[in-house]
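Record passed on here:
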Amino acid sequence: MRKIVLVPLAVMTLSLCGCEKIETEYQWVDLGLSVKWAKVNVGSTGISGYGDYFAWGEVSPKECYTAENYKWYDNDGHIIKYCSNISYDDSDYLTELLPEDDVAALEWGNGWRMPTYEELMELIRNCDWTFSSINGVKGYTARSKIPGYEKEWIFFPAAGFCDADGSCPGYEGYYWTSTNCGDSNSIQSDAFTFNPSKITTIGYGDGMARIVGASIRPVHK
């Protein structure tokens, strides 16, 4: 597991950030990176909203997130798409979600999509992170460290996750990327998780179980 641990500088209360639009109703923030990051999660209308939860590669929220109702498991519990396990005869070796399985691309359109693992790492490396509160909702603000963009920031609500045991919002955050983990662990995919004391990136062979319902923060070129 690849981890990045960041110690928050302070707990803050922040106002709305200045954002622009890309020929769509959805707003983005230019942090000076290779992609522009959306202001809100999929399913949310405000920066402090949790939004909807999605299992990896699924495009609709559910009441319960289990292996039994996961779209890409068959009746025997085998992965039937996005499988890179060399022991499976039907592996397709797809390493990134196709547009038809990317909920950001389907729901938002106009070039929006889920971020890749590399784009997530770029965001983490090039921002200062502070555990903060907006409208009474806890989460992390990511403020750009790129020269000329230092005033720009986005907020990731601590929306928790959904699985068979329920969710834990207000303390932790779980955000999917579009990247799967590869042949060492084909039932997991790469994600971004956090709590008040640390930020963790999970990827390249040690990801989060795909059946978990997590948040989606889209990106745009």
Remarks:
- Residues 1-24 have pLDDT under 50 and may be disordered.
